[in-house]
Amino acid sequence: MNEYSGFSQKLATAVISQAQSGDTSAMEKIYLTYSNPCYTLAYRITHNRTLSQDIVHEIFLKIIKNLTRYKSSGPFAGWVRKIAVNESVNALKKNTKLFEVIEFKDDIEAANLFEHRWWEACKDLKKLTVRLSDDARAVLFLHEIEGYSHKEIAAFFGKSESFSKQSLSRTMYQLKSLNAIKEIKNASHR
Question: Which residues lie closer than 8 Å to 4 by C-beta, 6 or more apart?
């Protein structure tokens, strides 16, 4: 699990068991523990506050409805996180068209975008990602922040693995261009 995702908080097994038995205070504890990370994830993907709030509502309806299906085969937070990603991507698919995927001239051009993780140094990543399409932002955050593989992202979108790879390549290229323009503007104002 990615340490930056907010899903690193753990609940006692007893709380989960109590919630599975219908204990509302245990369900409330689950909500209080994971509602903010779910909202943050939904907002990163959709960049829409109202939609993100609706998504969190749907996430917790799904969690409560399916709580008895959780069998402790993996971390509870991971189970919640997967539901959050699925609900966020499903909402995104309902509300937007998928953007076109571009082909790079060669693999070297695409590979160069990933060598230095330059975008981590961008102070205004949030401002830069506002300009991205919803799907581009979702792929970026799912891969680079949440740590999902291209195969997993492709499955969320019901697309091929190359969809995820090329979407991320295109997004990185776009962000790098936007950041370069911003740096030029900042230099000219000094």
Answer: 145
